[in-house]
Amino acid sequence: MQESLLRKTYVPHIDGLRAIAVLSVILYHLKASWLPGGFTGVDVFFVISGFVVSASVDRLPALGGWQGLLRFYARRIRRIVPALVVCLLITALLSALFIPESWLSETSDKTGRRAFFGLSNWVLASTGNDYFSPRTEFNPYTHTWSLGVEEQFYLLFPLLFLAWSRGGRGRALSLGLFAIATLASLAYALRLVGQGGQEIQSFYITTTRFWQLGAGVLLYQLMTVAGRFDATPSWRGPTWRSPLLLLAVAALGYGLWSARPGHSPWPDGLWPVLSTLLLLGLLHGHPQGWTGRALSSPPMVWVGKLSYSLYLWHWPVFVLFRWTVGLETVASGASAVLLVFALAWASWRWVEQPLRHGARGPRTNGRWVLLGLAVLALGAGLQSVLVKQQRHISLSTVSRHPLDWYPYAKGLKKEVPDCRVLESSIPVSGGQARLLQRGECPGGGGADTVLFVAGDSHALAYNELLRRKVVQDGGQVRLYGSGGCALAGMQGWRGPNPACEAYTRTVLDDILANARAGEVLFLPGLRLPRLSEQYQLFDIAQVRADLASPAAVQGRAAEVSAAIEQLRPLAERGVRIILEAPKPVLPAPPYRCSDAFNRHNPICANGMQIARAESEAMRAPVLRSLEQVAAALPGASVWDPLPVLCPGAVCHPDAAGRPLYFDGDHLSGYGNRVLLPSFREHLQPAGSP
């Protein structure tokens, strides 16, 4: 039997397919509307990887046992690890310099650390945020999920392929094993689709993606068994080949355009997989048709050779642009793409090629494997060091002054070293509940009264204010908080939320079971529509129009009646209810717009200030509704933080250069400290000093 064509020659059209895959992904990530299904370029990569890795192993002299395994893993390490580690470490450094800790970035560091070991896909699958959500879009390591899938596949591949090199029955055994594993993976993907609600897990995990890589392996094995690699190349294929090639190209284009979020890898991953299999099979031995010539053209081959580095670098570059100058304009997009290609070429030229093909390095496969594992462990350690040192090296004012920006109250330990706050959990279904109380302080724990605090994320954002109050006044705080679930939120007209309604009932039942006469229930919350989210701006004129709409007026009236009915049992028991008046909401998030490198980001276009008169006009109808609730409940009142946060004609995001807000509506740590005296004063019973 002649040595196969794939084993002895370079096949340029495969690099052309890689180019299509990586360019589709880059185009999608740059602007999704340009190629809505471009994310399935990764599916094309998976098929190519399965096909090429089979050919790569098969072309080498057969080695059995540990020697065969070590050779395979050593080759994979030389191919993957150098460029990956360099990219991850540079990304970690730039993230420490420019990206502060926030809701948008809270899973980034863990994702990056696990990416060194090919496990980032499992981190992303466990976060509850899909591939198309803001938190993954602002995570500079999100793209490593597919590398994790491939690396986990490579752990299994030699075990299933080992018998192939023995020939004869060994080939039949290996082919059968891959067929079983591929069908099992496809069946599992179908099962998750049938269950519903499993889109995130299905997208990321290896067990639902194995069939795409396995399809590439099976194609190589079946073509080898059929003798397709033993034939001399023919520049003119059968007449039926051209229509099938046209069909394959059309199917690939259809898949890259029509794939939908939440429908991958099944069913929308099917078209990219089938079309890639067809192109790989049909073009072999007949590469000179119009399709083969296009895929084998110098530009496509050049991009294909850079495809690994392009994939590595494009995502962190795009994400860092989003965090800093933005990626929305033509100029910023073009600059980002040029930088991606420059970094990819440098990585390919000075990192990939020398270590992949050069003679330097250990002389045995076992030592290559040990060196690769050591480099990965060292890289993960360095990334952890950069994360821990972020406060000292960052260029962001948020990271450099965490005590002012984050309401974590970590500064209390230094301010009051002989006193601490004890925190424990309270079992409440549907949300968070914390118990804060003074402990190990001179004079004991103070009064035994309890301050109940219940609301949405704005209740949790009062963390520092509440901790400081416990230290100063003693007593306990029972803090209930669930994002988006404010009690008497006055925004129910924007749409029902059954989960929040159930949570509210649970919280009120718990408070009713524990509150005593004379104790206080504080109800903070976001009661105005946002003017900015951490990742987008809203139309201020539209927000004002919505607040004055008939639906909003009717909705608030209904909520007033509901709140009075819900809170009356507590008020009649003698529990004092304090409703928080709406705080000003800002047109842009301060933590994303307070540095020189991000001040001109499109997210900051509306500025961070708002006229007090405009803020008063927005909150007036909501404030009237809250006052109606307070008037109907004995002892209830409305506490208004606006005069403290906005004492002048313009509401600023800061005071004396220190932030009052973290994002467009949540308080900062310094904002907590500024409001504490006003809050403590309002808590004093009438007539008290």
- Indicate the structural class: alpha/beta
Largest sheet: 7 strands, mixed
The residue fraction in helices comes out at 55-70%
Number of helices: 31
Shape: elongated
Per DSSP E runs of 2 or more residues, the count of β-strands stands at 13
> Rounded to an integer, what's the Rg over CA atoms?
30 Å
Structure description:
With 689 residues, the protein is α/β, with parallel strands linked by helices. It has 31 helices and 13 strands. It has a seven-stranded mixed beta sheet with strand order 1-2-4-3-5-8-10, with helices on both faces. Strands 6-7 form a two-stranded antiparallel ribbon. Strands 9-11 form a two-stranded antiparallel sheet. The chain is elongated.
Give the structure's gist in a few sentences.
The chain has 689 residues and is α/β, with parallel strands linked by helices. The strands form 4 sheets. It has a 7-stranded mixed β-sheet, with helices on both faces. A two-stranded antiparallel ribbon has the order 6-7. A two-stranded antiparallel ribbon has the order 9-11.
Strand and helix layout:
Layout: H1 5-8, H2 12-30, H3 41-58, H4 65-98, H5 108-115, H6 120-126, H7 134-137, H8 144-161, H9 169-195, H10 199-204, H11 210-225, H12 241-258, H13 270-283, H14 290-295, H15 298-305, H16 307-323, H17 330-357, H18 365-388, H19 390-393, H20 397-400, H21 402-405, H22 412-415, E1 420-425, E2 432-439, E3 447-455, H23 457-460, H24 463-473, E4 474-481, H25 498-514, E5 520-523, E6 532-533, E7 536-537, H26 540-547, H27 550-573, E8 576-580, H28 590-593, E9 610-611, H29 612-632, E10 637-639, H30 642-645, E11 650-651, E12 654-655, E13 658-659, H31 669-683
Parallel strand pairs: 3-4, 3-5, 5-8, 8-10
Antiparallel strand pairs: 1-2, 2-4, 6-7, 9-11, 12-13
Helix pairs in contact: 2-3, 2-15, 2-16, 3-11, 3-13, 4-8, 4-16, 4-17, 4-18, 5-6, 5-18, 6-8, 9-11, 12-13, 16-17, 24-31, 27-29
